[in-house]
Amino acid sequence: MANKDNSFYQEFEVFSKRTDTAPMQYQFSLLAPNEEIALVMAQENFMRRESVADLWVVNRSHIRKMTQEEKLSLHRLDNKDYRNAKGYGYLKKKWRHYEQEMLDEKEILSWGGKKSSHE
User: Fold this and answer.
1) What is the edge-to-edge ordering of all strands in the sheet holding 54-59?
2) Which residues contact 61 (CB under 8 A, 6 or more apart)?
3) Quick check: is 51 in a domain?
4) Does residue 110 lie within any of the structural domains?
5) Considering the entire predicted model, what is its pTM?
């Protein structure tokens, strides 16, 4: 089975997983006459360098990318900033500022009715 331009070779994309629980990762492209030869070539070229738990070989013509119109649907609405997790890193600084302003020595000593030694 030849690809669209009637050449003997087809383009394949190779993906692998290092372990059963690892994510699938893209590795490289290769040219082969069919899927079976592409898998053998991927094994020969890739597995001799490192061990893998799984190997996928996908004919590039079977990969569908989004159209420009479909990509427009990926843009977020302007009023959805609350969905972007920014973390809580600012809280430590905010708490420190709060402690410095609210719990100074004069205020703490005022709770017990004592005067500060600086007065």
Assistant:
1) 25-32, 10-17, 54-59
2) 3, 4, 10, 11
3) yes
4) no
5) 0.55
pLDDT averaged per 10 residues, the chain (length 119): 68 94 94 96 83 93 92 72 67 76 69 60
84 belongs to a structural domain: no
Q: Report residue 77 CA to chain centroid gap.
A: 21
Q: Which pair of structure tokens corresponds to residue 10?
A: 């087809």
Residues 6+ apart with CB under 8 A from 52: 16, 17, 18, 46
Residue 23 lies in domain: 10-63
Residue closest to 35 by CA, chosen among 6, 52, 55, 50: 55
SS3 assignment, position 108 = helix
What is the distance between the alpha carbons of residues 117 and 119, in angstroms, rounded to a whole number?
Answer: 6
CATH of the domain at 19: 3.10.20.520
**How many structural domains is the chain composed of?**
1
Residue 114 is predicted with a pLDDT of: 55
Taking the C-alpha atoms of 69, 71, 74 and 76 in order, what is their torsion angle to the nearest 10 degrees?
A: -70
Separation CA 102–CA 2 (nearest Å): 76
